[in-house]
What does this fold into?
Amino acid sequence: EADDKKKALELSLKDSQTAIDEMTGLISTLTEEISVLAAGIKSLDKAVSEATAQRQEENADFKELMANDGTAKEVLAWAKNRLNKFYNPRLYKAPPKRELSGEERITVNMGGTLAPTTLGGIA
It folds into this structure.
């Protein structure tokens, strides 16, 4: 009976050692997988930050382009209206009358001139 207990304990010890060896191998495998995933996450974070920077740059360029486009359209509309004044007076739209401030009325009444407030020509 003592031999049976001894053999059972040795077998149990052997099974435990085998299980420990398997778990150790599994732990090392999982550790390697975790390090690979961590490297992948760092790489992905870098790619996301680069893409974000590129999109912000492109957005700034787009906003500048749209602002310049709007300004160009205003200049073209002004030039078209100015040409209509001479070549097609029916389509000419006169600029709206401006309400003068007190100082401006005094300047005009005394024979002075006001500074232009709209585009007056090509700079």
